[in-house]
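To assess whether the prediction recovers the assembly geometry, we first specified each molecular entity separately, as shown.
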Amino acid sequence: MPTLVQALSAVETVNSVSLRYQYGPIFMTVGFALIIAGAVFALATFLGPKNPTPEKLLPYESGSPTTGAKHVRLSVKFYLTALLFVIFDIEAVFLYPWASLYQSLGWAGFVEMIAFLTMLTIGLVYCWKKGALEWET
Amino acid sequence: METGATFWIASAVKVIAIVLGLVNLGALLLWVERRQSAMIQDRMGPNRANLQIGGLNIRAAGLLHSAADGIKMLWKEDFTPPGADKFLYHLAPVISLVPPLCLFAVIPFGPSVYWANRAQVFGSEAWNTTTGFIPLQIAMPDSGILVVFALASSGVLGAALAGSSSDNKFSLMGGLRAASQMVSYEVTMGFSVVGAFMVYQTVRLEQMVQWQVDHAWGIFTQPLAFLLFFTAAVAETKRVPFDAPEGESEIVAGYFTEYQPMKMGMFALGELVEVMTSSALLTTIFLGGWQFPFLKLDGFHLEMFGVAKPILMSHLTVVVISAITFALKVAILALLQMQIRWTLPRFRYDQIMKLGWRILLPLSLGNILVTGIVLLFING
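The predicted structure of the complete assembly is given in tokenized form:
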């Protein structure tokens, strides 16, 4: 009989090996893409001439001098959209494990998720009625 | 699957080929876009870039313009606006180029190549081998499409950071529009594929393709999900008709107004690579991935057309045909997205948000409901 620690370490080894094979290439891709992007970025930074003049450094806003405060006041709609996104995108992630097991769950799985989706829809209808989805004004 | 050194060498080869290939395909797509614009507007299009070798003029139908542009942009002056947040301003173009390049890591672009018993591989019996194969896919993680969504979501950061760090009001507006629009359509994107997961019973892309090879293409089992995902994908790339974040007639160039040529080019390249990866994703989930109709692992099976015997082929031939099929499907979808650009005018921003939240999101929820009911009745 292996001890608990031995068994756990065996599981650990198997998982880390398979995880290495599953995710290692993704990190290789990210690394190589970073190298490509970094190379383009470095070439763009160092190859060109450097001759900044005061006019050149002004913010480009259709050629006329910039006016008013540095930051414009933003519509609250953008914050509302961000909040709605956080809520609904997390709901979508909740659905994925359910969806990939759906055909073995039968009616029980269907009813449970319909209850969940109904609550989600009530939230959407509420936002709609409150005017969070209105962009006309 | 091969393990050990073979695995890592094969992975490195695949990574380099895919990433470099995507960068070059982005440049090629720029040429396609210019040629197509010219064709639709009935003008000549790019044809001036000229390479003189000896007495020979090589113009390659304007293909050299992309290369000339790249070289020109690299040698342009590069400066940072004095009011900009230096770190975030420089981080933004890198963030918007890297995720689209990495998305391809989990997309299968061909069937597995059986590597053990190499002597048999090129015969017709090789597909029976169960060990020692090299998948034509950079990585096969358990989480599958979640990796795609994780990387795609980080694309929002590029536009948002560029807009907020440039110290320009138009950039800020463009960045906000981009962030708001991209997160809105990401919700639809996330919900529309749930129906497909319910049919395929997996989130792993290679298993989705296998299901479609065995049964039917996703576009037939989930037609509405295909349309929703396609619309959301076009909106995610911020191209016409969803180009309010860049809207050059309103806010100069949107979130990349303050960027000098090559850094602006990194945003543009990221966008074109996104067109390629979203087409590849659509192909994988809804158009049967690398499958050529009636082509099985040992050749064509045309029983339906009265051909009694299958037309046998070697394993390598099948792999090559499948990979070319995948490339063709991706090319057709990319061309369709190019075509949309010259077919529809830009939507107003309120129309974009309305389409996302009030039409596509309820439709994708309804699609989940209908798929659930239909599957329950099919399975009894």
